[in-house]
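User: I'll paste a sequence; please echo it back and then give the predicted structure.

Assistant: Echoing your sequence first, then the prediction.
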Amino acid sequence: MTGDFERLSVTNLSRHYGRRKALSRVSFTCEAGDVVGLLGPNGAGKSTLLSILGTLLAPSEGTVKYGTHTADKGGAGLRARIGMLGHDLFLYPELTAHENLVFFGRMYGLTDAPARAMQALGRAGLGERAHDAVSGFSRGMRQRVALERALLHQPRLLLLDEPFTGLDQASIGGLVSRLREEQARGVLTILATHDLDVVDGLLTRELFLRNGRVLEVTTGEGSLRERYRAAIATA
């Protein structure tokens, strides 16, 4: 199996911690090129869902299919098609930006990791800082390096947990542009965010979550913030 897939299908997905239900019977499908927003208050289950989709956490019930395969059947080939950026950027501050990406590139098994790392830093607008230690980077610069880390192996599925937190307007604009590039390449992006104004117009699908349940999947009229408020208010 090559691990590649064009569709992600989530069916009746639940995750329990004792009596607490972090997710309850969540179902949705999305296709390559979709940008799906997981929207909801803190504790809604967004990070739990991302962890399950990233194969870091097993569901208590339900299934996730990447194309026609589940995570246990897809194995390493499937995981090689997933990129993830969470709250922890997973960068080594004592290493340079280039050294960080080369390290992770080799972890991905890339034979051309040094060249690909330089190309990635150029796309991120950090080519001139490639050989500077990450410890001296701003939050926005570190975020750009971390995003390129998640994209270095050209994944099909990109999972992002609050990717705009702590970024200035210039960094936010650069991140949105980068996500549009990956969308055009056929990457399926699923992101959890509270920055509704930022992603309004970027998302192709929206999942409103509250208390582990999907409230609504909508492409309705009005701004994203208005639709979100209406969904939460009627829940």
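The two ends are 42 Å apart (CA to CA). The first helix runs from residue 46 to 53.
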